[in-house]
Each structure stands twice: as C-alpha cells, then as structure tokens.
Amino acid sequence: MSPALRRSRKAVAAAEGRTKGRVAVAIRQSTATRSRQVTAVLSKRVTAASSRRVAGVDEAGRGPLAGPVVAAAVILDPRRRIRGLADSKALTPQERARLAPIIRTRALAWAVAWADRDEIDALNILGATFLAMRRALLRLPVCPTHVQVDGNRLPPLADLPLGCTVEAIVEGDARIAAISAASILAKTCRDAMMEALDPCYPGFELAAHKGYGTPAHLEALRTLEPSPQHRRSFSPVRVALGLPDLPDPTDGPDPQAELPLTGTDPES
C-alpha cells in the first residue's frame, strides 16, 4: 500500500471517529434534555394533582334498624398510592381492617362523622346521611377544592365555608379511589361503634349484624323491647313498638331544605 493511500485511510478513520464522538455527545445531550423535560412534566402533573385537593365522601349505615349513620371524607395524596382500595362492601372485614390505618396514615386529610338515632328519626335517613357528610367535610383539616360524593344525590353544601365544586358519582365507591377510601373508613368506624354498643344492649347481638335487619335481629325485636339505639322511623322497629307506619318520606319535605350547619357535635 502506498504511503498516500495509508494517509488517506487514516484521515478517513479519524474523521469517522470524530463524527461518532460528536454523535454520541449529541445523543447523550438529547437524552439528558428529554429526561429533564419528562421530569419537569411529571413534576408539574404532581404539583397540579396535589394542588387540586379532591375529597371523596361516602357513608355507612343507611340500611340498619339500629345505630348511627356514619360518613367519611378522604383527600388522598397522589404521591402515596394505596393498593387494594375498593368498595368497602366488596372487601372482607380483614381487608378493611388492614386498609383503614394505611388510609389514615397516607391520606393528605381524612375525617369521620355521624348522625345519631335521634337525628335519623327527626330528619329521615337521607337527611341524616347528608348531615353526617357535611360534618365530615367540615372536620377535614385541609379544605378540598373539589368533592366527589358516592351516589346520585348531593348533600347541600352551598352554605358551608368550603368554596369548592361538588359532583355525585354513581357507584363511585367502586370507581373512585378517594370514595373507596372514604367508604372503608366509614364502614370500619361504624362497625367498631356497633361492637362497642353490643354489651350495652344484651340479646340484640349488635356486634354480629351491626344493626342490619337479619333474621336473628328481627326475631330479637319480636321478643325484646327495642333499645334506645333502634330507629323509631324504620318500619320493623315501629311494628315492634306497636306504632303505625310513617308516610313515605318522599312525600314529605325536602331533606336538603333545612339542614343545620353542623348539628349536634358528633363527639359529644
């Protein structure tokens, strides 16, 4: 090979090496730039998600014949995901017991409140449920920017100092994580309350059925006088007391019309 050809090949190899080096540098710079852009976008999304504080709201205990109706409000932290959230009715007691403390630990904010038997009988069960939801929202240590309520009806919130938007979501407890979390807290709280009430009213086995109208509970109502925790506005209890049935509550006043701002303090 002639000296000129060797010099030419060396020059070509050197040029190729410089080109490859510049390409590698360009790729690294492009990758770094893209990585910074992705990080910035994700950071903005997390910041936006955290600034938009969405409270999920759900209740437990509308159907039972005895005990309070309990509501919970939960604002989840988007940076601290909780696996296994679902409608509390679809979870076992063990699963609910495992998830409840995790929700309380990882949520940005949570609160539980309730309406007692007297309030249920005075307002009807829908009005008392809305009252419990209002109380739960007012007890949140962080004010939500948006509220999502399980179901197809909304509690009246216009008079509360929240300044947030609100929407009802049918089957929200199975579809929306924050509502699922609220359903779990409401259910576990109410179950604990009924278990604590059980020894106060022997014969009713409140710890077993949590106040629901099971055959055993209905049989107890036929042989025992209803307890102070039994809802006098519910038909099986009225039958046990020898009272006539009440008119259909849908024919009465709107349960949203005149709810108190907070009502009786649920901790009193």
Could you give a short description of this structure?
This protein is an alpha/beta fold.
Structure notes:
- The protein has 268 residues and is of the alpha/beta class.
- The protein has helices at residues 3-51, 93-106, 117-123, 125-139, 172-175, 177-197, 206-209, 215-223, 235-241; strands spanning 54-60, 69-75, 109-115, 146-150, 165-169.
- A hairpin with an 8-residue loop joins strand 1 (54-60) and strand 2.
- The N and C termini lie far apart (102 Å).
- The model is unreliable at 38-49 and 260-268 (pLDDT under 50).
Looking at this protein, list some descriptive labels.
elongated; single chain; 268 residues; Nucleotidyltransferase, domain 5; 49% helix; alpha/beta; five-stranded mixed β-sheet; 9 helices
Q: List the domain count as a whole number.
A: 2
Reading the helices and strands in chain order gives HEEHEHHEEHHHHH
Overall mean confidence score, pLDDT: 85
DSSP strand count? 5
Task: Bin the helical content.
Answer: 40-55%
Write the layout of secondary structure elements.
Layout: H1 3-51, E1 54-60, E2 69-75, H2 93-106, E3 109-115, H3 117-123, H4 125-139, E4 146-150, E5 165-169, H5 172-175, H6 177-197, H7 206-209, H8 215-223, H9 235-241
Parallel strand pairs: 1-4, 4-5
Antiparallel strand pairs: 1-2, 2-3
Helix pairs in contact: 2-6, 3-4
